[in-house]
């Protein structure tokens, strides 16, 4: 083959530190836009973002998958600094240490978009902790409970 062709979608999930309700309504839309800018600056596309007051879901497409971990670290560190600088009353804002990253096939793309878009409704019946355990199980990721949430 004379060219390389790629299609990489990732569903990325992480929470605020100790799953505290820190993503308030007055922060959320600006935070989401800021994250979109960070992804774009790394030659990625933020296809969908959603979550609740204590966690985020992102669906991104990124050209260089070798830089995925770096991009996630950049998003988390830059948004923490940004929140502290722009929302004076949110000095306690912090993200959890880890994250979940799950590959998404093109055939599942629309389902993940809907899933992320409907986070508020989804979490009326399921906690983030139960949701994340379910995602891990769906992707055949086994780990000890003590390592999931710290």
TrEMBL record:
GO terms for biological process: DNA transposition. Residues 5-119 form the Transposase IS200-like domain. InterPro entries: Transposase_17, Transposase_17_sf. Pfam families: Y1_Tnp. GO terms for molecular function: DNA binding; transposase activity. This is IS200/IS605 family transposase. The gene is tnpA.
């Amino acid at each position: 083959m004379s060219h390389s062709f790629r299609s990489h979608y990732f569903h990325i999930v992480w929470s605020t530190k100790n799953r505290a309700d820190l993503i308030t309504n007055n922060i959320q839309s600006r935070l989401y836009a800021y994250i979109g800018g960070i992804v774009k600056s790394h030659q990625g596309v933020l296809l969908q973002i959603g979550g609740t007051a204590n966690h985020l879901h992102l669906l991104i497409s990124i050209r260089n998958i070798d830089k995925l971990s770096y991009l996630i670290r950049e998003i988390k560190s830059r948004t923490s600094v940004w929140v502290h600088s722009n929302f004076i009353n949110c000095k306690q804002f912090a993200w959890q240490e880890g994250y979940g990253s799950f590959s998404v096939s093109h055939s599942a793309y629309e389902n993940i978009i809907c899933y992320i878009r409907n986070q508020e409704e989804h979490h009326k019946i399921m906690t983030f902790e139960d949701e994340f355990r379910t995602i891990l199980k769906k992707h055949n990721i086994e780990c000890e409970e003590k390592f999931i949430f710290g």
